[in-house]
Design goal:
CATH topology of chain A: TIM Barrel
Number of domains of chain A: 1
Largest sheet of chain A: 8 strands, parallel
Distance between the termini of chain A: 32 Å
Structural class of chain A: alpha/beta
CATH class of chain A: Alpha Beta
Strand order of the largest sheet of chain A: 1-10-9-8-7-6-5-4
Largest interface: A-B, 44 and 44 residues
Order of helices and strands of chain A: EEEHEHEHEHEHHEHEHEHHHH
Mean pLDDT of chain A: 96
Shape of chain A: globular
Oligomer: homotetramer
Radius of gyration of chain A: 18 Å
């Protein structure tokens, strides 16, 4: 695989893949293969591994490297693979990036270093240093709820001066900020702007973004692909129908549990209910207990989501 | 060295040591040796490496292991060595802890995993899992400004049920919280409660804490030892004199620069000005530019701090 | 005027009117009349006085009462008048509401009481008490950045059980929250959901809202009316053109000044530049100094906004 | 009464008086008289009405004026009376201040205007405007949790240039900030620095403050007077004994209820249990229900607090 395979901009749905685990520091290898095939079968446009939904910060470096290799081998060039390299230690970022390049990934994704609160000039320096060493194109990943730091529009504008920086995924839930980024796009027609939160996919695409990095696309990949296409093609009635289906999933399947970890736990649990992969989670999280699993199971059944037809039944055929 | 050397409670000043670096991923070995001797000459009661002031999250795992080995060898049992093992990945925490045990450190220190926002029950589970695997006594490290998560008093109370958990360092700047922890101490007379921010050392010790983990003690170790002793012995006039000297340092030396990283940058710069160690910082930070270095130098001169007498001259002889 | 005049739901643009002042506690009466005519000439669908943009909390109660009377007299039933009654003191809320009813206003608008941090059950009690005493239909006003308190979806759902509560204006900038409210609408087809921030008007209307309460509509009322209509009618190209014009105004005219008060100061300044009303502001704010006024003037000129044609010239005729 | 009666600095305990109410907008007049006598019997050094604990923002202006008149008449010059004039409307601040001056109060107290987020230069302007119009000496009241705005040290330093500004009450819970203010005191030996949170009274006084504005002193005035005196006189053992008694009250009596309003509700409830005044609260709050009242009653009994001896029994005679 090579860099030329990465469309610029990269349009569509690029799911942030869950990392299937069988135990502490142990990949669920068979589950990983099934999950990748399940997602690719939905018609998605890229695969992002080692992001937040992939629990990357909770995984050992050894496991991260193993995951990259296995994923790239399994995907085998069918879609671009983006690899999260975010780490608080610069040297570890680079190490993951090198593995990504060597195993044939198409791009890397980096969020702000997230322990120390840094200022924007420090963040700009950091990016300059990083880009100079990277063997692959870079996407920025704006995730202030977890990193405590925003890529402010001026920092993004500056990063756009570097050809190797090719896009940004915004998971800030801050639509005025997203509009500020949209206003920067005319200066770099090859730049990609993606939105993270799936409940904002419709408006994000309608108002100028190129697609979404939707966690729920691990479970129902086609739902998000169709929502993306409806927004792209401005079929508003269809877009709203799919948007409401996504909202319904968020209020049911993804609202089981009471902590802010509900989304990842519910998602892994749902994938396990469908027989796709194990629901073991890396510390500090744990899989749902039986009561909560039963709730997820019930929500899936009510939505009509099955392994053979991973799509809410309330959505009419597209 | 062995566990029996660790006083319980551990009283006094345990500086969170700066990590001397010569470049990216390269220890300043000679600087490290000088720094350790400089700090120990101040009469401190323990040494805490790989904390926030030690830039631990920004260091590669390789370098963390090297630092632990060299530090333990250099200290050679003269004071207890505490090793920060905080990491977002559980497996990496354990790996650092094992190195600490093998090289003769006396305890490990862990903060909350800091990427994912966790709930208190998740944090409690995390501690239970961690303690079960640890080869050394554990101090908790409450650092919500960086980890986004507080060890709530009930979580601390629960942790006190485990003999292997031997204390807590609080860097929350939240004195009512600190008082809540003081109220827990009667149940564990061997438990250590330390305060992080040096501007709170006086009141922290007077009102029930056992000592402080003061970053400034890298530069002026005796100043903090004397402040601790004055508070412990309730020599209030002397305590206030020293407290004001600390406050003055914070408002001068440690206020150079404009971002929240000022403290670490200023501290490394000051140590470099005194010829103790290099002021290279790990990404995302950079050493001060010449103008800022000149300011630090001037503040040091005005305070009368010299390599031979690393103590503000306004403090009368103790 | 009577309650029957208020459409349910109320659709379109309902500008939050600036309060023209000549000095401390002194209305700019002639400016008020000009401003009302200027706004109404833009084809707006209602007028909201004594909101945040109207500086209501900074105005004496005497002046609030005077403003209500003069506004209702001037509007004379041409559009519905909504009156903000938010106050930290319940009794003062009611007093403003009674004046509103007596002078012929059509509805009142209340935000959470904003000094004490209240819990949701307390907020629900508060609403129950208030609604029981109100002489007019009530809109809720979600404004957590200023009140520190959100009307959580469950609190809104509960409020929908009361026929006298007829709608909500959301200024939270939180689109997932807005979608949660949209999902409540089927239960009350007469209920109105409006969005406050003008940069979110397009998506707010497209995805289920009934209109917007846009501060910029004081200056360029027709711009927002056309944007609303384009979103309502799903003319997406036209909607984007107008959305970008709004975004451009936000980044130019409304970005003069450096504090969070920039928007109100810029808006009053721009209205003054156009000769519509005085730009005196109630404490704690002050009108712009000449340099900043010159910047606003220049931005207006570059946008081609004139008293006779208060519309950015980059927008093609609708 | 006249301005000369106000000691400068004002040292000791100045309770922020609860406002006894019988119903919405109705003072509990007999309760008010009993409460004032109860508090004064404890040996306190001043009385602060219309603060946060006094629910001032929730009271109508009519009632605020009535309370000032009745309180000043009842106190009759026995201690200085300080009157909170904080209001979002400048004109209303002044109106309350004039009543305070006319009825013989000794000083007024103002917090930042609390609806609009203002910058420090705006806050400085605001103070300049206000001081120019005030008929009485002014205390600043730093209360960022409720006002969203801090009087930054530089703003305080600037305010100290005005002789009419005579002190500051800090309720930020931020001890490093408090130390920054202590460092300003040498420039104005007549300036008063008081601390709000009672759990910080001991350290606040020991480290340079002049006293405390402790809500709990409505219930147990002598407890706080003795704690103040012990800290002032550096009787550390006694100080700690009293500090722990205060901490115990906070963890029992004042922790009933689950919202952030617990303190005011518990305090009014406790005063009602002791027969001192009614526990009606202004909206948005409500008195405790019987279960919670029973808990408060039980905590009072366990502490041994009675109308005749309003002091925790665990405290030995002073």
């Amino acid at each position: 695989m090579n860099k030329n395979r990465l469309p610029q901009p990269l349009r569509g749905i690029i799911p942030p893949m869950v990392t299937p685990l069988r135990g502490r520091d142990e990949l669920d290898v068979a589950g990983l293969e099934r999950l990748i095939e399940h997602i690719l079968a939905g018609g998605i446009h890229g695969l992002f591994i080692l992001g937040t939904t992939g629990e990357a910060p909770s995984l050992s470096h050894r496991l991260r490297h193993e995951l990259i290799e296995r994923t790239c081998r399994q995907v085998a060039g069918r879609v671009p693979v983006l690899v999260g390299i975010t780490d608080t230690a610069f040297v570890e970022c680079l190490s993951v990036a090198r593995t990504a390049a060597e195993t044939g990934a198409d791009a890397v994704v980096v969020s702000a270093p997230y322990y120390f609160p840094a200022g924007q000039p420090e963040l700009q320096d950091y990016l300059d240093h990083l880009v100079a060493e990277l063997p692959l194109p870079l996407f920025l990943y704006n995730m202030p709820s977890h990193t405590k730091l925003t890529f402010e529009p001026e920092t993004v504008r500056r990063a756009m001066d570097q050809p190797k920086v090719v896009g940004l995924k915004d998971s800030s839930y801050d639509m005025p900020y997203f509009h500020d980024l949209c206003a920067l796009l005319p200066a770099r027609p090859d730049w990609t702007l993606l939105i993270g939160p799936e409940e904002l996919l419709a408006e994000g695409v309608l108002l100028g973004g190129h697609g979404g990095v939707c966690g729920g696309a691990n479970l129902c990949p086609r739902l998000y692909v169709e929502l993306y296409e409806a927004a792209r093609d401005r079929r508003i009635d269809r877009m709203l129908e799919l948007h409401h289906a996504v909202h319904r999933l968020i209020q049911t399947v993804y609202s089981v549990g009471q902590h802010r970890s509900s989304f990842i736990k519910s998602l892994k649990c749902a994938l396990s209910c469908l027989g796709i992969c194990d629901d073991f989670l890396a510390e500090p999280f744990r899989r749902f207990r039986p009561e909560q699993r039963a709730q997820v199971q019930q929500h899936l059944e009510e939505a009509g989501i099955t392994p053979a037809h991973p799509m809410p039944s309330i959505v009419t055929a597209g």
